[in-house]
Design a protein that fits this description.
Blueprint lengths: L1 E14 L2 E6 L2 E7 L6 H13 L3 E4 L2 E4 L1 H4 L2 E6 L21 H18 L3 E3 L7 E15 L9
Helix pairs in contact: 1-3
């Protein structure tokens, strides 16, 4: 499972011109689901996202997590995080989980996130979306559950 986190002052996502999710201070999470992802990857990713200390209480010092500061989360599915551009000129997405399986994993991820965070919004799985954000910092982090030995099967 891969995620790109962006610390935001606000963010929203639109589908067909209609806002389907919006948040204030918190994190915009672009989430990619890999073909080998399991419940362990979901749990690791949720825990890492909500506890990662990337918010500032004091200027210039990242010492608070999303939970510490009562932040909100907007999750947008993004299979293109599994785009492999190492060969040729067109990305291969063979590392991404097929959409019919990934939808279930995405929904489970949202459910787990909602169990831990008061406000969690999301885009619509497989929809063409317009994402708007005011990036704070900017602070952008990249997470990959497979790069952690304890998550690997």
């Amino acid at each position: 499972m891969r995620a790109v986190l962006q610390r935001v002052r606000r963010a929203s996502v639109e589908v067909d011109g209609q806002v389907v999710g919006t948040i204030g201070n918190g994190l915009l999470v672009f989430l990619g689901i890999g073909s080998q992802d399991t419940e362990q990857d979901i749990q690791w990713m949720v825990d890492k996202i909500i506890n990662l200390r990337i918010f500032e209480r004091e200027k210039g010092r990242m010492n608070e997590s999303l939970l510490d500061m009562g932040g909100e989360v907007l999750v947008v599915s993004q299979f293109t995080l599994y785009g492999d551009c190492s060969k040729g000129r067109r990305p291969s997405f063979s590392g991404a989980m097929p959409s019919h399986e990934a939808k279930k994993v995405f929904d489970t991820f949202l459910e787990r996130m909602r169990q831990r965070v008061d406000r969690v919004e999301s885009g619509i799985f497989q929809a063409y979306m317009d994402v708007n954000l005011i990036n704070e910092g900017p602070v952008t982090m990249i997470l990959d559950s497979k790069e952690v030995k304890s998550v690997r099967p």
